[in-house]
Amino acid sequence: MFETANIAIPTRLRRAAGATQNFVRAALDLALPPLCAACREPVEGKGLCPECWSKLSFITRPYCERLGIPFVYDPGPGILSMQAIADPPAYNRARAAVRFDEISRALVHALKYGDRLDLAPMMGRWIGQAGRELLAEADALVPVPLHWRRLWARRFNQSAALAAAISRDSGVPIAIGALKRVKATAQQVGLTQSERAANIQGAFRVPEDGKAEVAGRRLVLVDDVLTSGATVEGCARALLRAGAANVDVLIFARVADPGRTSI
Ligand SMILES: [Zn+2]
Question: What is the pTM assigned to this prediction?
Answer without folding.
Answer: 0.83
